[in-house]
Amino acid sequence: MVQQVTAHHLTRLACLYVRQSTLQQVLETTESTARQYALRERARALGWADERIVVIDQDLGHSGASTVDRLGFQRLVADVGLGQVGLVLGLEVSRLARNSSDWHHLLEICALTHTLILDEEGLYDPSTFNDRLLLGFYVRYHLEDEYLTFIMYLLCSILMRFSGKTSQMIHNERHHVRG
User: Fold this and answer.
1) What are the catalytic residues?
2) Same domain? 86 vs 166
3) Do the beta carbons of residue 103 and residue 97 sit within 8 Å?
């Protein structure tokens, strides 16, 4: 992992992007926020000096579905595009942008500027074919997983409405619970 980090990367910034989708998540899932801030230690371990690590957390409480109101994400993309960033850190790469076009835009700019991406799973170099393919797959899989979950919820709701059964009744039938 460390072999991907060069002296040139270390001369640029490491940008830690911290985000939660809603204010309720910010208040209730503090462990997730703490895990995101803890990624700062990973940048240190890879060789970044404290003064070269920038935390961008102004998008806490903003959905990743669009970049319109996400000034932190816009700043991140701009700084990467200007060649000022050597490493982008995020808890999960799919959380950087929940919109496929926004994600691929960032991925393309990272590849062009030789900016690395790090999440809890690993360190990636989007300028290499394999890492770029893997990063694209992660986000596509996540987006499709969210979509399929929504469709399943919708179908279950429709089926329950037409069958006149509640979700508890269906659960009891599946697990042979006698009432």
Assistant:
1) 21
2) no
3) yes
Q: How far is residue 135's CA from residue 34's CA, in Å, rounded to a whole number? A: 24
Q: Which domain holds residue 154?
A: 144-174
Question: How, if at all, do strands 85-89 and 116-118 pair?
Answer: parallel
**How far is the C-alpha of 109 from the C-alpha of 79, rounded, in Å?**
10
55 DSSP 8-state letter: E
- pLDDT tens digits along 107-150: 899 999 999 999 888 899 999 988 888 787 766 655 555 555 55
In angstroms, rounded to a whole number, what is the distance separating the alpha carbons of residues 179 and 172?
8
Instruction: Give the predicted TM-score (pTM) of the model.
Output: 0.73
- Strand order through the sheet with 85-89: 53-56, 13-17, 85-89, 116-118, 123-124
Tokens of 162: 């037409």
Question: Per the structure, how many domains does the chain have?
Answer: 2
User: How many other CB atoms sit within 10 Å of the CB of residue 159?
Assistant: 11
As a whole number of angstroms, the distance between CA 158 and CA 154 comes to 6
Q: Which amino acid is at 134?
A: L
